[in-house]
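Tutorial sheet, problem 5. The three components below are modelled jointly, 1162 residues in total.
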Amino acid sequence: MNRLYSALALSTALTMTAPIAFAQVENPLSDERVRQAIAYAIDMETIVDTLFEGMAVPADSMIPNGPWHADGLDDYAYNPDRARELLAEAGWDEDYVVDVVYYYGDQLTVDFMTALQAYLADVGMQMTFRRLEGDVIGELTSVPEDPHSDVSAVDWDIAYGAKAALVLHEYYNVYADGHSAYTPSDPARTELLDRINGTVDLEEQRVAFQDFQRYESDALSDIPLYYQQIYIFESDRLDRNGGPYGNEQFNYDWNILNWTIEPDENGNEIMYTNKGPIQFFTQPWLNPGLTMGAKILYDRLMTADAALVPTDGQLAESFEVSEDGLSVTFDLRDNATWHDGEPVTGDDVSWSVHTALGVPSLNAVFANTFRSLEGAEAYLDGEADSISGIVVDGDRITFNFDTIDPNVLVTFSQFPPLPRHHLEGVNPLEFQQHPFWQYPIGSGPYRLEEVQMNDFARFVPYEGYWGGIANIDEIVAFPSEDNDPNVLQNAAAGRLDYGFTKSVSHVQGLEEMDHMRVIPANINYTRSLRINAFPFQPS
Amino acid sequence: MGTFILRRILILIPMLVAISFLIYLGLELTPGDAVSHMIPPDVANTLSAEDLEALREQLGLNQPFLLRFWIWLTNVLQGNFGHSLEAGVAIKDIFLDRLPATLELSGFAILFSTIIGCFLGTISALRRGSATDNSLTVVGMLGVSIPEFFFGLVALSFFALHLEWLPVGGRLMPGYDSFWDRAPHLVLPVLVLSLMMTAGVMRYSRAAMLDALSREYIRTARAKGLPGWRVNLLHGLRTALTPVVVLIGFRLPALIGGSVIIELVFQWPGLGNEFIAAVRGQDYPLVMMIALFSVLAMLLASLIIDVLTALIDPRVRLE
Amino acid sequence: MSDAALNRRFDRLRVLEETGKLKSRSRSRAVSKLMNNRLAVVGLCLFTIILLASLFAPLLTGYDPLRIDLRGRLQPPSWQHWFGTDMTGRDVFSRVLYGGRISILVGLGSALIAAVIGVGIGCYAGYKGGWLDAFVLRTSEVFMAFPQIILVLLLVSILGQSLINLIIIFVITGWGPMYRLTRARMLSLREEEYVQALQSFGVSTFKICYKHILPNALGPIMVNITLTTAMFILAEAGLSFLGLGVPLQIPTWGNILNAAQDLRVLQNYWWIWLPVGTVISLFVISVNFIGDGLRDSTDPSQQG
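Model answer (structure tokens):
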């Protein structure tokens, strides 16, 4: 019976928080050597080979591999002896139990946590893990009142999670003074952050990013674990006809107008997919490309390539960035219309930006861009009726910025303007609750034909689309959340011609099906251990 | 009878108010709220606390508890069931949308399980102690001993994926106009659900039949020389019907609550599916209304049982 | 019948009584009836085997149910691993055994606690009546007005997920029926003559309730405990499917079976789910058989 009771004791221990017993004590994880020891103790190579079945890449930095990744970083290859040495140097207390939290509900995460626990135990660190419940967002991001001296506002040692970034800055901007729930401020880091954000020059940015990575490689505010790819799956009926495969969670020029699909037995060219609406269409200003609706219903001012680097105009026929990077001008197409036939105007774009600033769940990159606009602060404070930095002249719209935002074009290649005449008067705080999201009107290559909430949504080519009429006659999207538990069932039954997933078990299952193919694509998605280095709450 | 029903309905009202208060209080005590669910953790690392606060203010999550409950209660009494926090859709519309799916699924399951269960139960009772009886008991027991999600998944994997006889799930597909179009989608979930329900009915009707067969008047009828089948059917089954009616009455609430897991396995867009989503999403108004609705169904069912048993069995008096 | 004959008879009875034979015979009648019910015996055997195997898990397997072996994952059954290994290379056989401890604890434990509470209150309140009875009756009505799964889900979302909370939740949902059952029995038993006799002797209420009446009401309560146990074990599995059960790192039957949710596991790695699925079903069946047997042997209306 002993084990039974120890399991019971364990579960009660989980509900308590480890720090309570160590009140007033300096956080042992604030010692760099301890963090490095943890990094050495975990055999990511083996975990990736086995648990993840090769479907992840061990990470040595938050920044994904590629031109922006710094060379010569310490990769903390599995070295339990080195970990034990470091712990001994740091005077690690073997009775201390590291409290790890996570917020994913899948079995793989629990398996990974179990593996982590075993690896840490091997070097003499005790660890428990638990899933965060309830107010996950609020808890994950509780920032100490005074980031210079104050105690931690979260009650765990390590949070396991991912950073899904649209732009690389998102990986590090959360370390900014007073913004981090985990890392006390550090002047050296603040300086590096300023360098990252202070320029639109790509080369300068890259050097700054690489310096930051070298700093982080020792400091390990986050212990990078692995990079994850996104897996796009298609049935053998579908053909992109040369369209590229890229970061599927966002929008890029994927050639959808020219996709083709083999007709079914009735001669209908219908593409089946998932991520359709459950109760409503999710508004695309938080996740601009995660759901099927967000992907095909709307156009943006610009498009991007598969790596999400902004390229050409989309709703805008042309665009121009000023020499100093503080002003961008777009000239809208004459023939771009909403699905109800009304033209897309500069006024729509301006209204969308104004409204978006009031929507609480606005994508962080968009928010950064819009807040850098000249007069945005006055508008937000209620001192001005509009943002002085937005100038509309017929089909020409100009954005003038107060401060440099390195991601202006990224924002406009992802942010979809919405039709003012349908949403006029919406309360930005209840944006998602507006009836518009039961039957949205967009400007993209497909329009909504019919929706049965929680059953299916049917999209058909928009006859008035400026770029021509799309090839596939109909797209049917079945409802699912971002992580669709029924991918394998539906794919096996021929109800999925296209989709994308991050789930390792889905990929394995799909690859075993003869009629499905899986194409991996690189994304900015790094899983890490976020280390809480703040001193603990005295109790 | 009329006054009895009226009085019972009058008792229902304070009961429902008390229950709704308890649920409201319980949900109040849970950590987190709808706002923390609306924004996925992986992307929300830079939202400011003020933004979140403004959203809470707007959704009315910041008012004192009792005031919120009072507002909610008065609204419901006026027929305004409120809106789902996440979707902003009127809860009434959600019910109108999802209820038919759930009723369709559970209705068929109850119908089939009752017919099959009564039939097998009667056979079992008439051949008490025989091999047929024992094997039926064991098979029936199996039906209630397998976790339903597991049963569902195995059935799905075999019939829908291996044999490809039936669709894997969902209810409506584009172009469906009649019931017959979607009937194939119904087969698997109804099959699994009714198999799980059959065992209960069978055991119940077996016991009731045995009870009835041991009654004096049955023996008398037999002694009078009436043919065996007539005695069994006309006299035995009729008496045995009372407990079966009770059982069906108890199953009625299952029309709403009983198929939660099956709906999830077969992607069936019913109320059960909606309830799980609402619980996970901490969409309080929706959780409240679905829970209350199922409570109401349960209470009404027990009222109906009482009335029906009184109608079938003249010895039962309603007080 | 003459006085002498009557006396002789009584003497014989007294002897029997004194040697305890009367008592033991009346007890053994229920037991022997239970033993005559073949299904109940099979159930009892299965139940005992599974229970003992779980309790003595360390003697039956050398594997730690939590010990992972990433390089040895997904091995089919072999002499080393009787039920193979799972996604992280843990020994499935040992997980099923140790998982049984938690699942049986949750199922049987919650049913027993619910019974102690429900019967404890029902016995006293049913006998005494009054405001206490009225209050508890109304409270139980409130809980019983919910469809079970709805109530469990509500409580999980309110209390949160942990082993202890799950037991609490099951007790909250399970005590009502036990209470109602006991109360109903008490209401009829308290009118019996022997109770009135005890009252007139001035035996304390407490003693009458728990010592004299309760044993006569135990039959249906035992039946109810078995059925409730079966229900809770299945409910635990269902909750883990919904992701709302015992935290995933604790091995329970439900958590192990939940791996079948992954279609690939369901189709390719049968050893992960088939043994545990079989054990759950066998255990639930055995409990149900015992319950049925108990009902037949304690219910005087179903003789023969």
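Marking note: Chain C is about 75% helix and 0% strand. Full credit if you identified this.
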